[in-house]
Write a structure and sequence with these properties.
Distance between the termini: 34 Å
Order of helices and strands: EEHEH
Strand content: 5-15%
Amino acid sequence: MVENILAIDPDNFDIIINTTSVGLKENASPFPAKLWRSHHTAFDIVYDPLETKFLFEAEQAGAKTITGDKMLVYQALAQFK
């Protein structure tokens, strides 16, 4: 667990996954925009809206983004198995 997210070095990781409901009902992000880097991949499990503030800010920094509908579809496929 990170006590202070601003204390981490964003160059030490490649993928950031938002597994919270932040962004579902409000235009907010759990990740500070200034920490995004172009080598990051951002995956948000929120699927409505598809483009959350989390993903928007990641994309603005040049990061690859994956929307929450991908998780929803693959979760449904796994349930059918």
